[in-house]
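Milestone M4 deliverable, item 7.
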Amino acid sequence: MKIIIDENIAFAEEAFSNYGTIELYNGRKINNEILKDADALIIRSITNVNNELLNNTSVKFVGTATIGTDHVDLEYLRNNGIVFSDAKGCNSNAVAEYVLTGLLAVAKTNKIDLTNKTMGIVGYGNVGKKVVNLAEAIGLKVLVNDPPLERCGYNYKFSSLDEVLKCDIVSFHVPFNNGGKDNTYHLLNKNNIGLLKKDVILFNTARGAVVDNSMVVDFSNENPNVKLIFDVWENEPFCNYELVKKADITTAHIAGYSFEGKVIGTEMIYKAFCNCFNLEPVWNYPLFESIIEEFNYNLDKNLFYNILSITKSIYNIYEDTGSFKKILEYDKNEGAKYFDSLRKNYKLRMEFPNYKVNLSEKIYSSIIDVIKKLRFNL
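Output delivered:
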């Protein structure tokens, strides 16, 4: 068996080498010629899977170790009897932790009091649910918009998109759909961006084209108190440099780049691959086996500052921002290469359950409940 794998798939050799010959490639350089006699293809979001890529190949299985499928022509795979699997949910905790870390960092830097603030979540899938949990844990009032779930009678009190966009904090967590009833292309656009508050904290960790990047630049120019936290960009790896300049926190589509997320993504595709070819799964990776570091909860600080001091020690999001903003030193083509290099060479973060928070006997049970909801060890 011949298996073609994106070189940035975690533990690819350990997981798949038991079943045949594996070849690792840059995901943007995987082409039809490479796949001529391949049996399986394991990718990430940067490889577009369609007729052009797979025509006249022997590929029987395609797996993407990502939560999105907008880079995959699912209808083509179905019509040609090619088994497909994705890794929905694999890095959802990582993205939620990124959002919490970014929110607290921006609030502290800009002296924004988060007490009594509202947070609007667009999309209540694997990531959106976890962002809601973390936001509510630290005391934010949350409004959620998700028309597909609302239509199917999901048991949750949903809000309209207009209501959500009027919140103090707005964060997008939807899949990318270009057209159709649930179109998410430019979900935030020239027609509704005016609903945002003049000092909104705006996140996009979904897909770049969910938000009209040019409109966000214009809105930010008109409203200098807007705070922008962007991890995804229209036309990646090419970015809107004006938006890069404006944003408070900028990263190279790495919000979900935790060690655990990568391992779980590989494991999900690995199991689907084994199921497709009737193979016995033999590889697994134990997670959360030890505590990396311990933190003390400081009674002299409020909840937000305590959580910030912990999350900043785990992940200094401004370091990633500093690295990313160096993209402005390059022209667009070299900048695209730099974008990819940041992703390829990214030092994976470890998720919150790897860390322990020590609490004194004087801590209220409500604080203990918050720490537990944030998934820290106690």
